[in-house]
Amino acid sequence: MSVESKVESGVLHINIAGRFDFGVHKQFRDAINQITAGIKKIEVDLSATDYVDSSALGMLLLLRDKVSCDRNAVEIKGARAEVKKILEIANFSKLFILS
């Protein structure tokens, strides 16, 4: 499990591999602390994520709060079927762009 992040052309890219659970809380917090006024969009790539739990959902909500609840500011992309199903059950499609 790992969280990698980089800023490129005003976009913060966050890649999460393995389990997205409380074990990566500090890494995820470090990643979202990179959000500054120059960041226009955040992309969370879950293509290498094979598990999410309620703490992961909470961390995504913290991210949303940090960008002032703007649905279009955060895109969650590449989620595998089982991960996407959890996001949809939690109605995250109403809070984030899921692609």
CATH top level label: Alpha Beta
Alpha-carbon Rg, integer: 12 Å
| Outline type | globular
* Termini gap: 22 Å
What letter string, H or E per element, gives the SSE order? EEHEHEHE
From the 3D structure, determine the CATH topology.
Transcription Regulator spoIIAA
Number of E-state strands = 5
Oligomeric composition of the shown chains: single chain
Task: Name the structural class.
Answer: alpha/beta
Summarize the amount of helix as a percent range.
25-40%
Describe the protein's topology:
Blueprint (H helix, E strand, L loop, with lengths): L1 E7 L2 E10 L4 H8 L8 E12 L1 H13 L7 E4 L3 H9 L7 E2 L1
Protein name: STAS domain-containing protein
Pfam family, one: STAS
InterPro entries: STAS_dom (IPR002645), STAS_dom_sf (IPR036513)
What would a concise description of this structure say?
Helices cover 30% and strands 35% of the residues. With 99 residues, it is of the alpha/beta class. The longest helix has 13 residues, at 54-66.
Plain-language structure description:
The chain is of the alpha/beta class and 99 residues long. The protein has one domain (2-98): Transcription Regulator spoIIAA (2-Layer Sandwich), CATH 3.30.750. It is built from 3 helices and 5 strands. It has helices at 25-32, 54-66, 81-89; strands at 2-8, 11-20, 41-52, 74-77, 97-98. It has a 5-stranded mixed sheet. Helix 1 (25-32) runs parallel beside helix 2 (54-66). It is globular and about 35 Å long. The two termini are 22 Å apart.
What are the main properties of this structure?
99 residues; alpha/beta; Transcription Regulator spoIIAA; five-stranded mixed β-sheet; 3 helices; 30% helix
